[in-house]
Amino acid sequence: MTSDHFVAAELARLCAAKGVRHAVVSPGSRSAPLVIAFLGRSDISCARVIDERSAAFFALGMAQQLHAPVALICTSGSAVLNYGPAIAEAFYQRVPLLVITADRPAEWVDQGEGQAIRQQDVLALHMKRSIQLPRNPHDELARWQCGRLINEAIDATLLPVPGPVHVNVPFAEPLYGRAEHREADQGRLIAPVMTEPFILPDHARWLIGQVSACRKVMVLAGQGLWSEGLKAQLKRLATLPQVTVHTEATSNLDDSTFITCIDRAIEGVNASNEHDLRPDLLITFGGAVVSKRIKTLLRKWRPEQHWNVDAGQRHHDTYQSLTHDIAVNPEIFFAQIMNGAQASESIYGEAWRMVDERMRGTHARLLVRTPFCDLSVFNTLNDRIPGDSDVHLANSTPARYAQLFDRVRGIRWFSNRGTSGIDGCTSTAVGAAHATKMLTTLITGDIAFCYDSNALWNEHLSPLLKIIVIDNGGGNIFRYIDGPDRHPELLPWFEAPHARSIEKLVRSFDLPYFHANDQPSLEQGLDQLYRTHDRPAVLHITTDAQLSPKVLRDHFKQLREAGATPA
After folding, report:
1. Adjacent-strand bridge partners of 259
2. Are residues 289 and 429 in the same domain?
3. What is the pLDDT of residue 566?
4. Which residues, listed in sequence order, are joined to residue 282 by a DSSP beta bridge?
5. How far apart are CA 422 and CA 433, in angstroms?
6. Is there a single domain that holds both residue 106 and residue 246?
7. How many Cβ atoms are within 10 Å of 228's Cβ, its own excluded?
8. DSSP assignment of 394-453, as one string?
9. Are residues 164 and 229 in the same domain?
10. Taken in order 471, 477, 479, 484, is the CA torsion positive or negative?
11. DSSP character for 30?
12. Distances in whole angstroms, Cα of residue 59 to Cα of each of 48, 54, 63, 80
């Protein structure tokens, strides 16, 4: 059985035919035809999440891991607006979401009817496509158009690059009718044919010539999950003396030949070596870069050439020096470049490695003397989180601290760095753990955890999800960054200190709770956290709100001083 509304039945049928296997549904009345149609498909698994904002991030976490579109279904009115934050994140992070919103008939908009808002195109600014389906396609031509639009919408979630697509569907009452599947009413399936562009030979030869002739080439990787093939090409590229490869945790490209702790290494840049470390050619690819330091430095340096490699992002000029926009997949780009790139007479790669090694040694020596604080906690977490698992970093402190430590043991790193908001970090991790069935650790702060606590109001919590809450008394990042720290009377408006009991919050969801406030209890707490539980477990770590930012400032200051001292 399916819905007796043709549009709802056709949406569910074509989603299943095109490989959409998961739908996240929030309850409501106007969406009843969609719920009936999708629940009637044995080949689509439906998950109920009540809070629409959390549901959208939950779906984002699933789609992020599955690399496939996840349908997101809600009723009309303000429910749709609650999708906004996750949709923006999906848009900038390029996560495929098929957002299907039920609507009132257009005739009722602005007429005092409940749940009838100006819903068509309401999320369009952060959608790849926004499509309005007909309310009641009676004749063959209208049904043909409806099927074509649905095919187009589903395909657009993946091609030419992934992202969210909005399908708005008005329904008139009655809403709860059912009907048998009718083959005669079904439209055709339009199958996309996958293609992959490449660099034309003449252009490839020029690019190879530039890399071979240049004496200072910096490759900077942004957020993403990349193949072993791409990593192998980058390792080959890093063997060229004129090349240095810089990555972050969320780049998921860790290798001993790369500079993997950018913020730490940059403290070794000083007036005497700046000329030697400044690139002539910058090659960037991937999503967002966390490091504000590297952005500031590259905007100051303004390389003579900047190539951005991205199949879908046009003129992405983060460093204000873009000279070439190369619209191909990075995997193809580096494979073509490495077919002919030659070594030049240069010590550029070695110069960066020397600075990086020096900062690594200083960093390690400083950590030995570091008291219990956020920095020492992250040092312990980096050593103790089990290998070959997934880690989700909430914004903003966790995403920054993680960049200071060498990463090993096959951990995959994720973070909502598309918009860098705190609003859905927990929900995203919950969705990801549900999709992967893998050990998944969320490292979050107290404000982010409280903000998204409805993520735990969810029937699909994986027992393999482990949540680490670092509670430093509010938005502690504002005690560290320049500006807010100089105005103590305004700090409460930035930090947002709260009086909530995280223990009581966790226990209200009937989850295992552990607490740590010093190094011995942290070690014990991690042992307890990673034991087998039948629900997600939470480790609550409290640190000193005054001490943690002071230690981090001093840490960078001492790194900088060590970098400025002749070796």
Report:
1. 246
2. no
3. 58
4. 218, 306
5. 18
6. no
7. 7
8. -TTHHHHHGGGS---TT-EEEE-TTT--STTHHHHHHHHHHHH-S-EEEEEEHHHHHHTG
9. no
10. negative
11. T
12. 11, 9, 6, 14
